[in-house]
Structures are given as structure tokens and as C-alpha cells.
Design goal:
Radius of gyration of chain B: 17 Å
Number of strands of chain B: 0
Strand content of chain B: under 5%
Strand order of the largest sheet of chain A: 1-2-3-8-5
Largest interface: A-B, 31 and 42 residues
Oligomer: heterodimer
Helix content of chain A: 25-40%
Shape of chain B: elongated
Structural class of chain A: alpha+beta
Radius of gyration of chain A: 33 Å
């Protein structure tokens, strides 16, 4: 018959959890000294708990935090859109409510149209040759190519070009991967912010940005550009990690001197 | 990070500071992912559930009681979400199908790895009450008091569950000749 009773069990648990008192410790020692079975049982419990304590924590998947923060930000943006739409509805209701506002608007539109027709000469030529966009656009900044890097990895081939126009940086990626990969662009928080993104071929599977990191999920052939706006410190480096299944297989650091024109 | 720091961040999040929320996520992403993973033993599912945990936390921050430890509250949400997720997906008996022991290394490491593999399998056969108390005690390293806050049970119940959970786990490990 087993000599392990509830009391011995409770003493062993308390000892293992580090909450045993002096009197209880003496009691436990007496049980341990007096029985081979209790000693063996104690060792098993200890081994079990040490095994549990030593299970290595896993690293969360890359980009998880970024995805959470980006998703959390979404509903508020949608709310803001609703608010914006609501305010336009209110303005329209006010405009519709007052005839004087409706007449004034009609007069204004007519005046603007008449003026533009007379300036363009459209009324004389009787034809319309219009191209381009309404509104104004500032001239595109001139970018200077600064750095060109080649990537030759079993899982990934391609190039990365760095271009600069004052404080605006372009990271132009032309990549061809054998499977899904993640590209992490990291920098000291507040040194840069994501200014824009464009893509030429295919689709980037995911793009998330949080403080200090932009994570892009890619697969296959991908041509895309990440625009960064640089704040304050012009010497802030940019780190790039290329990951597969959460493991980094290639890291690059674009140091300050590499960000300046030769 | 202590609870006062968390309270400051939570107040900032409630005022619309997404940077503060990002700090909270980064701070607790790893322990929460591990809690969920040890409850489910499925990385993909753990990823989705961890995301849900933080989004629910974000939506319900106004319900958080600053007198309680934020991490305990977060663990409570994580355990509940993991249990819900397991109920929605598959019974834990399917564990063996996806269990793939990591590559073994020589000597003591091999024994330790075998023990860990055995523990992972045995953990998944326990009911969620026992599994959650073991995860919070041994994986997260919480004390009885914090576990009682996270599981919303008394400290006495925590001790009693730990005791029974270890006994059951030891029984299964012995049966499989890991102990």
C-alpha cells in the first residue's frame, strides 16, 4: 500500500512552489528520510515541475504586434469616416432647407462656368480638348539614386535601390521569392515615418506599420517601393530583415553614410 | 513593467493614443501568445487567438479595473478566448496528429527534449481548468494570488487545482514512461 498521503502531497507541493514554512520543511524532511517511496515520489514531482518551468517560451509570429495595432486602429478610422459623411449630410440638409442658399449656389456655378468658357476659348472653337486632372499638383521631387544592393539567397533573389530627395527616401524593392516571406523595415521610433507605398507588379500580401517598424508580407515576384520621411536625425540607420517562417535569413543595415549621395 | 506604468498607458489609449496601445501589445505579446499556445498547441490558432485577445482588450479597456493587475486581466481574457477557440475547433485528443517533436540534441538535452515533448502531449490531455492553472504557474510564472485573479477563483481553489493537475500530469507521464 502507498505511503503517500494527502499531507505528504501538500508538503511536497508547498516545497516545490517555494511557500513552505520552517516547521513544514522539517516535517517533509522526516517523511523523506523515512521512506524510499516518498523520496522517489518527491523526485518525480520535482522533475515534472522543473520540466514545466524549463519549457522555452516561443517567439510570437513576426508582424503579429503590427497586425494587432493596425486592426485596432481601423474601427476608429471607420467611425471618423461615418462622422465625416454625417457632417456632409447635415450641410446638405441645411443647404436644401433654405431657398436663398440654393439660388446663390446656382448663380455661383453659372458664373464660374461662364468665366472658364470665355477664358478657354471653348465657346469660339466649339470643341473640347481636355486632358489631365482638375486641381493643382506640386512638382514631383527629384530623387537621386544613392545605393543599390543585390540579394542572392536560396529563398530570395532581387535588388534593393535606395533613392533620396531631401528628407524623402525611397526603398525600391524588386524581389523574387520561392515562397511567402516577410520583409521588416526597422528604424528608431520617430526617426522616420511611413510616407507612402507603391507597387508595380503583383500584390504585396500585407503591409503593417507601427512605431519603428514596417512589415511587408510578400510571395513570388514583387516590385514595390516604400517611401520614408526622415525626421530630425539624418544619421538614423535603417535595418532590413528578410524572414521566412519567422526566422531571419538575411539582415541588412543601411547606415547613415550609405544614405547620402556619393 | 509594473501596474502603474500599465495604468498610465491604458489611460493614454483611452484618450486615443495608439502608440500607447502599441507599447502594451509589444510588452505582453510574447507571454500572452505563449499562454494561448500552451492552451491550444497550435501556432496558427494561437496567432489568431492572441490577436483576438488584444483586440477585445482594446475594445473593453473601459471595463478594466485599475485595482487589478492588468496582466492578470489580460491572462483571464487569453484563457477564456483559448477555451472558446478550442471548443469551436477540435477536441484536444487530436493533439497527436499535429505533434512534431523538435530535432533532438545529444545527452541531457535529449532527455530534456523528450521530457518537454512528453509534457506538451500530456498537458493537452488535461481538462482546461487543470491546463490553465499549470500554464499560469509554470509557463507564465505567476504566484497563487495572481493566478486566482486571472482565473477568478480563490487561492484555495488554485492550490487544489494545481495539486490535482500535477497528480494527473505525473500519472500520464509515468504511464508514457517519461518519469
Amino acid at each position: 500500500m502507498s505511503s503517500i498521503n494527502q499531507e505528504i502531497n501538500a508538503l511536497i507541493q508547498a516545497d516545490i512552489d517555494g511557500v513552505i514554512g520552517d516547521t513544514e520543511r522539517l516535517q517533509l524532511q522526516q517523511y523523506l528520510d523515512g521512506s524510499e517511496e516518498v523520496r522517489a515520489y518527491y523526485q518525480d514531482c520535482q522533475r515534472l515541475c522543473e520540466g514545466l518551468d524549463s519549457m522555452e517560451p516561443l517567439d510570437p509570429p513576426v508582424g503579429l504586434a503590427a497586425a494587432i495595432v493596425a486592426t485596432a486602429a481601423q474601427p476608429r478610422e471607420e467611425g471618423a469616416e461615418e462622422e465625416w459623411a454625417g457632417s456632409w449630410k447635415n450641410l446638405f440638409a441645411i443647404w436644401f432647407e433654405f431657398p436663398v442658399l440654393r439660388y446663390a449656389t446656382a448663380f455661383l456655378v453659372g458664373a464660374v462656368l461662364a468665366s472658364s468658357l470665355s477664358q478657354s476659348g471653348l465657346n469660339d472653337r466649339g470643341e473640347m480638348r481636355t486632358a489631365g486632372l482638375a486641381g493643382t499638383m506640386s512638382p514631383a521631387p527629384e530623387f537621386t539614386a544613392i545605393q543599390a544592393l543585390t540579394l542572392e539567397q536560396p529563398a530570395l533573389n532581387g535588388s534593393l535601390d535606395l533613392l533620396r530627395a531631401d528628407r524623402l527616401l525611397q526603398l525600391r524593392f524588386a524581389l523574387d521569392s520561392t515562397g511567402p516571406l516577410e520583409v521588416a523595415v526597422r528604424y528608431q521610433n520617430q526617426s522616420y515615418h511611413l510616407f507612402g507605398f507603391s507597387q508595380e507588379i503583383s500584390e504585396v500580401l500585407s503591409l503593417t506599420a507601427v512605431d519603428g517598424e514596417i512589415a511587408l508580407g510578400i510571395a513570388g515576384e514583387q516590385d514595390f517601393t516604400v517611401f520614408l520621411y526622415q525626421h530630425g536625425d539624418l544619421d538614423a540607420p535603417i535595418e532590413l530583415d528578410f524572414k521566412r517562417d519567422g526566422e531571419t535569413f538575411k539582415s541588412l543595415v543601411i547606415a547613415a553614410e550609405q544614405q547620402r549621395a556619393p | 513593467m509594473n501596474n502603474n506604468d500599465d495604468t498610465g498607458l491604458i489611460q493614454a489609449v483611452e484618450k486615443g493614443d495608439h502608440g500607447a496601445f502599441a507599447t502594451l501589445v509589444r510588452q505582453y505579446e510574447k507571454p500572452i501568445y505563449n499562454v494561448v499556445y500552451r492552451m491550444l498547441h497550435d501556432r496558427e490558432e494561437a496567432r489568431d487567438v492572441t490577436q483576438t485577445v488584444f483586440l477585445k482588450t482594446f475594445e473593453n479597456l473601459h471595463k478594466y479595473d485599475p485595482e487589478r493587475k492588468f496582466f492578470s486581466w489580460l491572462c483571464r481574457i487569453a484563457i477564456n478566448e483559448a477555451i472558446d477557440s478550442q471548443g469551436r475547433t477540435r477536441p484536444s485528443t487530436e493533439y497527436e496528429e499535429q505533434h512534431s517533436p523538435e530535432q533532438a540534441s545529444p545527452g541531457d538535452d535529449l532527455q530534456r527534449q523528450e521530457l518537454h515533448d512528453g509534457l506538451e502531449g500530456a498537458l493537452m490531455t488535461l481538462n482546461t481548468d487543470y491546463r490553465s492553472v499549470l500554464v499560469l504557474k509554470h509557463i507564465v510564472g505567476m504566484n497563487y494570488h495572481d493566478i486566482s485573479l486571472a482565473l477568478e477563483v480563490s487561492e484555495k481553489t488554485v492550490k487544489s487545482r494545481l495539486f490535482s493537475a500535477r497528480q494527473k500530469l505525473a500519472g500520464k507521464m509515468k504511464k508514457e514512461a517519461y518519469l
